[in-house]
Specification:
202 residues; mainly alpha; 3 helices
């Protein structure tokens, strides 16, 4: 068997291995998303049952207002945590795919460089400029790929920092809204108590 058919077989094997790895990464990410959603649904059903029980035990409107305001922040925090978990899963799959792509590109670049070297060794006299042009083109393509790869990684870092900033802003806004709702509920409760006292005196 000659070297060229063996190279072709090696490339096909590498391509199949990469395809299997990509499918494994995608399926693994999908499996994690399904698992996360099942856990969220299970926890939500348990919380709904518990909250229904608590609602049935409320005695007056002030307790109802206080109960509703007490749910706001934990629910917002759970939504933020869920979003972060989904983002982490998708980010991990994306990183795995980027690594596979980088490996595949590096192998391809190495094979092209080896092919150019073989051509240079077997090229007739006077073809040095053509070989130099091929090597220069390969170097330019490698530089362009590296630049694109760095830009993509920087975009991921910016997206992660934006998600963190948005999460922190949402938590602060939820805390402020919860505090305002609790203060309003306390004002309503105090006003109701004052009204009951003044109504009892008349």
């Amino acid at each position: 068997m000659s070297a060229i058919p063996q190279q072709i077989l090696d490339r096909q094997k590498s391509a199949i291995n990469t395809f299997v790895a990509v499918q494994g990464s995608i399926f693994g990410g999908f499996e994690k998303l399904v698992d996360l959603n099942m856990k969220v649904i299970k926890a939500s059903l348990g919380e709904a049952a518990e909250q229904s029980q608590q609602v049935s035990e409320l005695k007056d409107p002030q307790e109802a207002v206080a109960f509703v305001s007490s749910l706001a922040q934990p629910n917002a925090e759970k939504a933020i945590a869920y979003t972060k978990n989904v983002y982490d899963i998708l980010s991990n799959v994306s990183n795995e795919l980027i690594k596979l792509t980088e490996t595949q590109v590096a192998e391809g670049q190495q094979q092209i460089a080896e092919t150019i070297d073989q051509l240079a060794k077997n090229a007739p006299t006077g073809s040095e400029s053509a070989v130099a042009l091929l090597k220069s083109s390969l170097a330019t393509a490698n530089t362009a790929y590296d630049s694109l790869n760095k830009a993509a990684k920087q975009a991921v870092e910016v997206a992660e920092s934006n998600l963190t900033a948005a999460t922190n802003a949402t938590i602060k806004a939820t805390e402020s809204a919860t505090a305002a709702t609790t203060a309003a509920a306390n004002n309503v409760a105090n006003a109701a108590k004052t009204a009951q006292r003044s109504g009892g005196r008349n």
